[in-house]
């Protein structure tokens, strides 16, 4: 099974991810229900039958603050050196798709080591990433992530749409947790490879209005054996207003663990 | 302003909620951006122009396990006493709508105490509760909550749709946080009236497959002054398999606080 999965992900060489990561992530397609919570925020484009849409690029729903922050970090993804071609800058934009993986129609890809069928084909073909499950631009989560490997930092720029309501006119606490999970989980994956979320500890300080743009900045606290500790703050776009802060713990997982071996 | 809000919510007398709660919750419609994270999971049906749809009733997407658990708790909402009419049982079903509040067109309802306009009318009219923002039955969150005031317990029965994907084939960590926030927040509101979420601390133990039904049971840990401490477990439908466990802290808020007074 590992071999056929390897073929499925052959050619996954997005510049935003280490080449090895694609190969390591693939077994998550067959993760047993007995394994811990497996994080694979990063998408696997080669598994799509056609070129997938990258949703972390600007669209007509993006407001001025969203665009300003996007351009701020985008401009630092490439740097000009006099007399030479542009070179990679300190930041990298992470692409974002609406599926972690499009399951192949081959039935054997969905058979667990225990022999059970993994998921019904209906669910497989319809499944969409929670943060990208609404197609109307601007209605739910609009976001883009940038990572700075040298500084071991990650930022997420989020514009909160009208379908994220909790308290009237404000973003639902679960939607805020989802944004935090997305940024810290992607950050941990870039730093440590395949991980699972083990803990999220979120302190809500102030409500976020619908339609607002917020900045989520995550930092690596420490790495100990299989553990990656990340913390983050959700602030206004100038960083002065604190909305939420959180810590997150991720556990590295091995291929054999993912396969239930 | 308080008076006009009072009129808006006059007649809110759902048996699932204390009568006083409707009146207390209404000022959240004008919560200042400077106030803390305000929780108003419980819907306010009288604010709707027509009778709103209660989404916590069975529909064609509900699977056998979802229906079985629903019927288990529903049967305990009324008890038969020999020779008498049916009486209220120990459990109560909480209705669930796709808006916390439908904003009135009156512009003055949206003016903050500071004088600023609260939200654009476009966002107001389109806003939908995060957990009910997808209309296709069974595609995202299907759920119903029951509360037992005597035992100070609340249960949520959730069926996880294909649009909640995080790890391939499994529910997103943010979607799990959203389910936990929904159950514990509703529980705290029933116990303490208007509250805000102050903290969510979530330990992920095992991934939840898309299409699965899970049971979330929350218990009151303690109440101290303005603080309501709730803990919960997310398990399989027979309670034996532990998927996630969490603690939550909610802060009671006053009407004047909500109004930024």
Which structural class is indicated by helix and strand composition of chain A? alpha+beta
Distance between the termini of chain A: 12 Å
Radius of gyration of chain A: 19 Å
At the third CATH level, what is the topology name of chain A? Thiol Ester Dehydrase, Chain A
H-E string of chain A: HHHEEEHEEHEEEEH
For the record, what CATH class of chain A applies? Alpha Beta
Q: Looking at the chains present, what oligomeric state does this protein adopt? A: homodimer
Helix content of chain A: 10-25%
Shape of chain A: globular
Question: How many beta-strand segments of chain A?
Answer: 9
The biggest chain-chain interface is: A-B, 69 and 69 residues
- What is the overall number of helices of chain A? 6
Provide the domain count of chain A.
Answer: 1
- The low-confidence runs of chain A, each spanning 5 or more residues with pLDDT under 50, are 1-47, 102-117, 255-261
Report the mean per-residue pLDDT of chain A as an integer.
77
Task: Bin the strand percentage of chain A.
Answer: 15-25%
**CATH architecture label of chain A:** Roll
What attributes characterize this protein structure?
homodimer, 261 residues, alpha+beta, two-stranded antiparallel ribbon, cell membrane (chains A, B), cytoplasm (chains A, B)
Characterise the protein shown here.
Two copies of one chain form a homodimer. By secondary structure, chain A is an alpha+beta fold. Chain A has one domain (2-258): Thiol Ester Dehydrase, Chain A, CATH 3.10.129.10. Chain A contains six helices and nine strands, in the order αααβββαββαββββα. In chain A, the strands form two sheets. A seven-stranded antiparallel beta sheet of chain A has the order 3-4-5-7-8-9-6. Chain A has a two-stranded antiparallel ribbon with strand order 1-2. In chain A, a hairpin with a 4-residue loop joins β4 (141-148) and β5. Chain A is globular. Chains A and B meet through α4, α5 and β6 of A and α4, α5 and β6 of B. Chains A, B: It is a peripheral membrane protein. Chains A, B: It catalyses: (5Z,8Z,11Z,14Z)-eicosatetraenoyl-CoA + H2O = (5Z,8Z,11Z,14Z)-eicosatetraenoate + CoA + H(+); octanoyl-CoA + H2O = octanoate + CoA + H(+); decanoyl-CoA + H2O = decanoate + CoA + H(+); (9Z)-octadecenoyl-CoA + H2O = (9Z)-octadecenoate + CoA + H(+). Chains A, B: It is found in: Cell projection, Ruffle membrane; Cytoplasm; Mitochondrion inner membrane; Mitochondrion intermembrane space. Chains A, B: Its main location: membrane. Chains A, B: This is Acyl-coenzyme A thioesterase THEM4.
């Amino acid at each position: 099974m590992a071999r056929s999965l390897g073929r499925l992900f052959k050619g996954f060489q997005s510049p935003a991810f280490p080449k090895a990561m694609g190969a390591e992530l693939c077994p998550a397609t067959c993760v047993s229900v007995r394994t811990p919570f497996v994080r694979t925020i990063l998408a696997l484009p080669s598994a799509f039958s056609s070129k997938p849409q990258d949703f972390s690029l600007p669209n007509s729903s993006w407001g001025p603050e969203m665009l300003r922050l996007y351009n701020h970090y985008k401009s630092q993804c490439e740097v000009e050196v006099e007399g030479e071609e542009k070179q990679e800058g300190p930041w990298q934009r992470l692409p974002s798709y609406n599926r972690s993986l499009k399951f192949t129609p081959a039935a054997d890809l969905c058979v667990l080591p225990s022999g059970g069928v993994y998921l019904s084909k209906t669910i497989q073909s319809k499944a969409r990433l929670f943060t990208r499950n609404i197609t109307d631009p601007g209605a739910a989560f609009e976001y883009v992530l940038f990572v700075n490997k040298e500084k071991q930092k990650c930022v997420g720029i989020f514009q909160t749409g009208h379908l994220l309501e909790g308290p009237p006119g404000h973003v639902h606490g679960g939607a805020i947790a989802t944004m935090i999970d997305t940024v810290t989980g992607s950050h941990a994956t870039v730093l440590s490879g395949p991980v699972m979320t083990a803990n999220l500890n979120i302190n809500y300080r102030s409500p976020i209005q619908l339609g607002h743009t917020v900045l989520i900045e995550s930092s690596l606290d420490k790495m100990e054996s299989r553990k990656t500790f990340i913390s983050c703050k959700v602030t206004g776009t100038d960083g002065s207003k604190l909305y939420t802060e959180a810590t997150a713990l991720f556990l590295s997982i091995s291929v054999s663990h993912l396969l239930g071996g």
